[in-house]
Design a protein that fits this description.
single chain, 797 residues, mainly beta, Immunoglobulin-like, 7 domains, four-stranded mixed β-sheet, 53 strands, 15% helix, 38% strand, disordered N terminus, binds 2-acetamido-2-deoxy-beta-D-glucopyranose, transmembrane, transmembrane helix, cell adhesion
């Protein structure tokens, strides 16, 4: 098809040139016009016909083409008289840009010589495309290049001329650049590429443009050049954080270096323009000290954080690229609480001491308790020891008071250590405690108490006045003044005399002193009350009974009751000469007002006219004969009997007993010549004797009746005991049992004697110790000495 079109085009050209030929043949000059690039052998023109020559002439004329020095592109076909292409003709090589382009040659004939100039014009065909010198061109353009920036491009070359020459350029794609052509003086065109839309490396870093140069031939030809544009980065993008706000949690007390969060900002720029570094933007230095952000965006903890100081941190973070562009973000860090604070106990006020009479619910101390931790970690409970009479009660939030719970008693506990323990509810729980020392002050609520419920003390009679008898002691459980005990003797009387004249009590020491010297024979015991009173206000007191027992001393010698010792008169016992051995001459009767051993008497014969005739009963004082009285024995016998008590030292009394050994009164009287009496005395004697006889008889009978009735009574008693099969217990009156354990004497004669020294009235009684066989002797004496002066003296005593 291509070939056919070429052929067609040549035919048109040929027709065109024929009209030219007709014109020039007239002038004798033949011109042809052929397009370049015709194939070898192609017809240029029928020269024979155009020159009007016969083919024979051409053959005969040896026609030839004369070209001078130029190459032979065209040859002559002599047989047909045609000009044909010998060498392919390239117009561009032949003429370059010169127009018109023609081959000038002559056809020379001989015989005759004829020369015909021939001109063959070579017309251009579009056989050359525009061509760039280089196939590609590289540009590096900063993305910051301003609109209108110009970039010079190479021109393309198209050797064809006129319409077949270079006509225009196109650039594709044309979104950023446009072309601008400047016509040059040489007819060429300067090509510029102008930036018409900003470049953005971040959108498109590389661009490939195709520059096409187009000619105007038919068909059109073009040449291209690749333009490679590399967009250079400019720092036109700031870093951008991935989040507006970063949230993070960190536990308080987390160790330094703990990663809190990872920050990230991106910068679409390239290279150093895209290198982001992070800084903490807070101007508050405390925050910038606490946290640290690394180059690569790790936010790490750089110091201790304390929930109790700050629960939340807001950190401004900046991301900066090398070009100085930045973005900011915020990190919100919630600090998590850890139970790291013990409760803090603050005593607001507390008493050092309270009275033991304080009522329940008395406030002892008030305090506040705080725990800076949060939630459960900050919930506090306070307790105190259960075993003390105090409780802790909350008064309002975080306030507590300690109040008394029950009665206090200083005497039971004078001091309390109240330990308040507060603990929070964290896990593990933390606690703290405070100890409060509370003194219980004294109130006089205890009376003095004597060590014993009653006191009994002994004092030996004849003491020196002022002697301390004993010390009593009362204790008071209270304290100090309330426990200072004074002893007070309470008023009472002993035998009608105020007790204060017997004893005194030392108020401070409780020593009881005898005020006077006591006489056992006068007073054997007495009692009184002593009050112990403390120094409180009002004072409390108690009292106790004190019994003082006076102990006997051997301060009284025995007293001989019989025989009566009269000053001048002479009394004698009569012993008949016929008396047998063991004849009871008389009985010495003595008493001792002391008691016990001190009154325990023994009798001894101290002196005797004839020691071999009489003896004295050691215990009973009976004087008996120990041999038969003989005629040789003197009528007048004189015995000295000593009576001793058993005291230490013992005291004694002596008595002289006169014994007359005779059968009749006259004999006695003659012997006792110094028995001289007044006549007057003898006159009255008869009357006295009769009176005495009557009295004695009455007494005797009375005694008999009493003794018999006692005997009968005892017999009956013993019968009753016998019949009731009970063991017969010998009856000892209470006093008899006091044998003082010596046991040497089976019979103790106890005379309970109340003596009055000067009174004539005798209080002496032979009381219940009625077994004294005194009445026998008594009657014997009465019988034997009716005429003697015995009776008055007996009555006297
Ligand atoms: C109270 O504590 C003090 C000091 O620790 C101690 O000396 C005292 O004996 C304690 N008192 C009581 C009643 O425990
Ligand atoms: C002595 O104490 C008793 C109780 O032990 C009391 O009843 C009595 O009134 C007190 N006497 C005096 C005088 O205080």
């Amino acid at each position: 098809e291509g070939l056919r079109s070429i052929t067609y085009s040549r035919r048109r050209q040929v027709l065109l040139f024929f009209s030219v030929l007709c014109l020039s043949s007239v002038l004798g000059q033949v011109s042809y016009s052929i397009p370049e690039e015709m194939a070898k052998g192609s017809l240029v023109g029928n020269i024979a016909q155009d020159l009007g020559l016969d083919v024979k002439r051409i053959q005969a004329g040896k026609a030839r083409i004369h070209t001078g020095d130029s190459a032979e592109y065209i040859q002559l076909n002599k047989e047909k008289g045609l000009l044909i292409i010998k060498e392919k003709i390239d117009r561009e090589a032949l003429c370059g840009q010169t127009t018109p382009c023609a081959l000038h040659f002559q056809i020379a004939l001989e015989n005759p010589i004829e020369i015909f100039p021939i001109t063959v014009e070579i017309t251009d065909i579009n056989d050359n495309a525009p061509v760039f010198e280089k196939e590609e061109r590289r540009f590096e353009i900063s993305e910051s290049a301003v609109i209108g920036s110009k970039f010079m491009l190479e021109r393309a070359i198209d050797p064809d001329i006129a319409r077949n020459g270079l006509q225009s350029y196109t650039l594709k794609p044309s979104d950023h650049f446009m072309l601008k052509l400047h016509s040059q003086s040489d007819g060429g065109k300067k090509v510029e590429m102008i930036l018409q839309k900003p470049l953005d490396r971040e959108k498109q870093e590389f661009a490939s443009l195709l520059l096409t140069a187009i000619d105007g031939g038919e068909p059109q030809r073009s040449g291209t050049m690749q333009i490679h544009i590399t967009v250079l980065d400019a720092n036109d993008n700031a870093p951008v954080f991935t989040q507006n706000i970063y949230k993070a949690n960190v536990k308080e007390n987390a160790i330094t270096g703990t990663l809190i969060t990872k920050l990230s900002a991106s910068d679409v720029d390239k290279g150093s323009n895209g290198e982001v570094s992070y800084v903490i933007g807070n101007s508050m230095s405390s925050i910038s000290k606490l946290f640290l952000v690394t180059e690569d965006g790790h936010l790490i903890l750089n110091g201790p954080i304390d929930y109790e100081k700050a629960k939340k941190y807001e950190i401004d973070i900046e991301a900066v690229d090398r070009g100085g562009l930045s973005d900011s973000s915020k990190v919100v860090i919630d600090v998590g609480d850890i139970n790291d604070n013990s409760p803090i106990i603050n005593m607001i006020s507390s008493s050092n001491s309270i009275g033991e009479d304080s009522r329940p619910n008395t406030v002892v101390a008030a305090m506040s308790v705080n725990d800076p931790d949060s939630e459960e970690n900050g919930k506090v409970r306070c307790v105190i020891d259960k075993n003390i009479p105090f409780i802790i009660t909350p008064t309002s939030t975080n306030f507590y008071s300690i109040v008394t719970y029950s009665e206090l008693d200083r005497e039971r506990a004078s001091e309390y250590n109240i330990t308040v323990s507060c603990s929070d509810e964290g896990v593990p729980s933390l606690s703290s405690s405070v100890t409060l020392t509370l003194q219980i002050s004294d109130v006089n609520d205890n009376a003095p108490v004597f060590e014993r419920s009653s006191y009994e003390a002994y004092i030996v009679e004849n003491n020196t006045p002022g002697l301390s008898i004993f010390t009593m002691k009362a204790r008071d459980a209270d304290w100090n003044q309330n426990a200072r005990v004074s002893y007070i003797l309470e008023d009472s009387s002993v035998n009608g005399v105020p007790v204060s004249s017997y004893v005194s009590v030392s108020a401070d020491s409780g020593v009881i002193h005898a005020v006077r010297s006591f006489d056992y024979e006068q007073i054997k015991d007495f009692h009184f009350r002593v009050k112990a009173q403390d120094g409180g206000s009002p004072p409390l007191s108690s009292n106790v009974t004190v019994k003082i027992l006076i102990q006997d001393q051997n301060d009284n010698p025995p007293q001989v009751l019989y025989p009566v010792q009269t000053g001048g008169s002479l009394v004698a016992e009569m012993v008949p000469r016929s008396a047998d051995v063991g004849y009871l001459v008389t009985k010495v009767v003595a008493v001792d007002v002391d008691s016990g051993q001190n009154a325990w008497l023994s009798y001894k014969l101290q002196k005797a006219t004839d020691r071999a005739l009489f003896e004295v009963g050691l215990q009973n004082g009976e004087i008996r004969t120990i041999r038969q009285v003989t005629d040789k024995d003197a009528v007048k016998q004189r015995l000295t009997v000593i009576v001793e008590d058993n005291g230490q030292p013992s005291r004694s009394a002596t008595v002289i007993v006169n014994v007359a050994v005779a059968d009749s009164f006259p004999e006695v009287l003659s012997e006792f010549t110094d028995f001289t009496h007044d006549k007057e005395y003898n006159d009255n004697l008869t009357f006295y004797l009769v009176l005495a006889l009557a009295v004695v008889s009455f007494l005797f009978i009375t005694c008999l009746v009493v003794i018999i009735s006692v005997k009968i009574y005892r017999w009956r008693q013993s019968r009753i005991l016998y019949h009731s099969n009970l063991p017969v217990i010998p009856y000892y009156p209470p006093r008899y049992s006091d044998t003082l354990g010596t046991g040497t004497l089976q019979h103790v004669y106890n005379y309970e004697v109340c003596r009055t020294t000067d009174s004539r009235k005798s209080d002496c009684k032979f009381g219940r110790a009625g077994t004294l066989p005194f009445h026998n002797t008594f009657s014997a004496v009465l019988l034997s000495e009716l005429n003697g002066p015995l009776l008055p003296s007996l009555l006297q005593s």
